[in-house]
What does this fold into?
Amino acid sequence: MSRVGAGGAPALRTPAALGMWARPWAWLTAPGSPVRLALLRALVGGYLTAWSLARLPAHVGHADQSPVRWQPVGVLAWAGTPLPDAAVVALAVATPVLALLFTLGWRFPLVAPFAALATLVLATLDSSWGQVFHTENLLVLHVGILAMAPAADALGLRSAARPRAGPPVGERYGWPVRLAAVVVVLAYVLAGLAKLRASGLAWVDGEVLRNLVAHDNLRKALLGDAYSPIGTRLVRHGWLFAPMAVASLAVELGAPLALTGGRRRSAWVVGAWLFHVGVLALMAISFPYQLTGVAFAPFLPLERLAARVARLLPGSPAERLVPPT
Amino acid sequence: MASTVVVVAVAIPGVRTLVDDDAPDGFPLSTYPMFSRDRGRVVELPTVVAVRGDGAVERLSPATIAATDQVMQASAAVHRAVADGPSAASALCREVAARLAHRSPSATEVRPGTDPAQVGPAAFASVQVVVERHDAITWSAGRREPLDRRTVATCEAP
It folds into this structure.
């Protein structure tokens, strides 16, 4: 029985001195399901819509920020002064509208690049006041990848005249899902390597993690923000932090396992999700894109999950997502 | 081709951190520097506090300190004001005092059982930009007073 990896491709069987890039390339560009890609678009777009609406007051509030706090990063690094107030408000208001159209797949080839650009600029604006929001990295990257793909060939508003499930499996539909999975893996691996680079193997004795948890909660308290009572309690028990430090490094450096499919993928997704639950519990830091599971959607057989939901809930909207058999 | 560009773009900042300690962070292509470097047990943290007539110190929220709901942005604002010298710290102090005059105390500023009038602007004698030194581990164990507190700027409360 063959296993299935991210995006529905045959599982990537690692090492072996294969013509170095040939095999990864074949894996990345293998055919994929248009329904899986469309479901990923709907999930990521739905999250983007909710995020941009929930953060609307804060986004509009950037117009009132003091210019002395302007520390632009990324695509705004060139800007010596904050964006004009009208541009900030227009961007904040337009993004949820574009996000909704992106989610629905309406005129996708036209709308999606604007949605991706608006998301990139808005999220970068968020990160240009002295704090880089790493919580939004994967969202921005996933929206950008989906915007380059035919992600509304199935299940899009404009594809209503065609069968709901859209065109058959094809090469055009596989790479975006797998690329979205690869950037998730890269993000975790790079975070793990950064820990080893900055702290070396001392990271695994737990003292660094313990100090980080204590420091983060202390800083929140001094700045009048909510901090984690669980974290402050656990910091008193230093021995707990060595296993937690090892586990966090294992999740980060073990991320490539998620590309191999099967149980290893499932185990890693569960482990990564628990990692973020732990971060929330110990430091009151929320990674909502990860905690809602949307960040890990590229690893999951979404069309099969939709079919399962449809079988459990006959007559539900999920039934319309299932390709005709 | 697009895939290659995306993978390389995402990987480059991370690879830079492997060869350069001072590689700057970016967005959305990050070096993921957060939670990687040991901060140590004893840390100096700048903040802004309101001081009552009797000398008691009250913590202020990120919204009062820097007109933001993000604690890290408030932290960055205070760090920068302190680093930029006395005039920048005084300017921040006055800004916070002005916001204090118009604010409703946040949930984290009002302890259970507190009379809201006692945390209103009239309750405070001054606003101070301070740098506090704490042992983060003993703070977690319940010893909340700083090892020392250095005042960088003071201004009158409204």
Observations:
- DSSP finds 13 helices and no strands in chain A.
- Residues 86 and 259 of chain A are 44 Å apart (CA to CA).
- The longest helix of chain A spans residues 171-199.
